[in-house]
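// run 5 | inverse folding | seed 20
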């Protein structure tokens, strides 16, 4: 219902200029004209009814000849010229539904208010439950939280007064630190798998109630890399031993002495038979240059 000209001058603007003679044409405010000539017209941002109205107005204005090809935006956005694999879509839907059913379920009871416990037909108050009630499923996000684990080591003393025995404490991934292996794993996954910078991760931790300096997160991240270095070298060796290895490089900006320099992240992909199973091997290696010794 809200119609307006496409621009202040009343002309449809395109990359090479404007199409004159259409100062009286008005379309929806969401209309965007990408290309228009005597052969075709492409319009985006319009629903079906508005699109058909726009085409009729353009034909009446002699900007579209009868029989000209017009592309409906919905057809392009929904199909993109590719057939839909129904079996694949249904399989993905079943997988998603199965994953949702495995979530922890918490039942919340909603009781009818006392003021509403009156029959709307007869006004009676002798009401009884009808089945299990009306159930509605809502998926809610529960923010993660930190736990402070207090490890108490039992200490035993001999009656002789000379011997003392202390139970072993909790196993630590990093010595002389207050942070557990689960937190260390979360830092590595957030940085490497989710591409989350450590300063943003520090902001998240601060909102969750455990302020951590960026330098602390950096130290923990580097310590985790040192612990996982043997596994990384093993994956590199297995990848290099395969007859066919695909390689690619990605340019990265690296902060170096208060300025950015160019670095390269190499990705190596191979397939290997390990213990009778075909596995995909992916190895990463960073290099400050494109020298030949990097691979």
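// decoded
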């Amino acid at each position: 219902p809200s119609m307006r000209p496409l621009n202040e001058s009343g002309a449809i603007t395109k990359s090479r200029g404007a199409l004159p003679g259409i100062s009286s044409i008005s379309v929806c405010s969401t209309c965007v004209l990408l290309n228009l000539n005597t052969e075709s017209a492409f319009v985006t941002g319009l629903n079906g009814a508005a699109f058909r109205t726009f085409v009729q107005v353009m034909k009446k204005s002699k900007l579209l000849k009868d029989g000209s090809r017009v592309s409906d935006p919905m057809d392009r956005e929904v199909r993109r010229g590719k057939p839909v694999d129904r079996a694949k879509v249904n399989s993905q839907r079943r997988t998603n539904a199965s994953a949702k059913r495995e979530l922890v379920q918490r039942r919340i009871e909603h009781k009818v208010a006392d003021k509403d416990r009156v029959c709307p037909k007869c006004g009676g108050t002798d009401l009884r439950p009808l089945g299990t009630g009306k159930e509605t499923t809502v998926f809610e996000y529960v923010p993660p939280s930190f736990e402070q684990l207090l490890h108490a080591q039992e200490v035993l003393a001999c009656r002789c007064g000379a011997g003392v025995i202390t139970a072993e404490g909790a196993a630590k991934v990093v010595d002389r630190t207050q942070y557990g292996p689960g937190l260390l794993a979360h830092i590595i996954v957030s940085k490497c798998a989710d591409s989350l910078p450590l300063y943003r991760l520090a902001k998240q931790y601060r909102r969750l109630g455990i302020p951590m300096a960026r330098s602390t997160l950096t130290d923990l991240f580097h310590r985790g890399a040192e612990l996982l270095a043997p596994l990384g070298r093993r994956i590199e060796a297995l990848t290099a031993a395969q007859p066919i290895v695909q390689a690619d490089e990605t340019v990265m900006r690296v902060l170096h002495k208060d300025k950015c320099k160019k670095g390269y992240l190499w990705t190596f992909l191979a397939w290997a038979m390990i213990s009778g199973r075909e596995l995909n091997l992916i190895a990463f290696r960073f290099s400050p240059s494109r020298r030949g010794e990097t691979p």
